[in-house]
Amino acid sequence: MKKLLLLLLLLIISAVYIIKQKEASKIQPINYKNQFSTTEKKVLQAARTIIDSAYYGSFVTLDKNNQPKIRVMEPFKPDKHFVIYLATNPRSRKVQEIKNNSTSSLHYFDKKRVGYVSLYGQSEIVHNDSIKKALWKAGWERFYKNQGDDYMLIRFTPNYLEVISIPEGLTGDEKTWLPSQVKLTE
Predict the structure, then answer these.
(1) pTM of the full predicted structure?
(2) Nearest CA-CA partner of 157 in 115, 100, 110, 98
(3) Dihedral angle at the C-alpha atoms of 96, 97, 101, 107, nearest 10 degrees?
(4) Sign of the torsion formed by the C-alpha atoms of 65, 70, 73 and 75
(5) Over the stretch 125-175, which tens digit does the pLDDT of each residue have?
(6) Please, are residues 86 and 140 in contact by the beta-carbon 8 Å criterion?
(7) How far apart are CA 157 and CA 127, in angstroms?
(8) Can you give the C-alpha Rg of the chain in angstroms?
(9) Is CATH 2.30.110.10 the classification given to domain 36-183?
(10) Separation of alpha carbons 18 and 137, rounded Å
């Protein structure tokens, strides 16, 4: 009986270890690019200006059939690497879509300045309560009745971005209309 219990305990420990290893393998360390050319810095500054001015962004995920699903959201300001957090309800379809396929995009359009920025990367669900608490906004109680159960964060990490900004002279390629691009990760 003791041998059977010991064997069962070893199987449980092994299963937990395998699950944790599998989860850890999903999280790849991100090598952010830190050196940018003068032109890239100009594009990055234009991107920040557009994001600040636009305020709302369109967040794109892929459903199980790889059909893009787009919704307007109120993202937080990007950090120095353009990592952007978004708040949502854990029961929204985007949560399951991110769990199934982390590929996602975020797009901002600034009508006044005639420009846009599109960011392309991956999203992940944030389970860290201290980050959730730090990013909580006053007034959200009406959207998230129970902060613990109804409020969840998404962390969007872009690999690269594209910008069109008429005031900065970033108008894209003359023939192909390809926007100015900056790679954000190595």
Answers:
(1) 0.83
(2) 98
(3) -140
(4) positive
(5) 998 989 999 999 988 888 888 888 889 999 999 999 999 999 999 999 999
(6) no
(7) 16
(8) 20
(9) yes
(10) 38
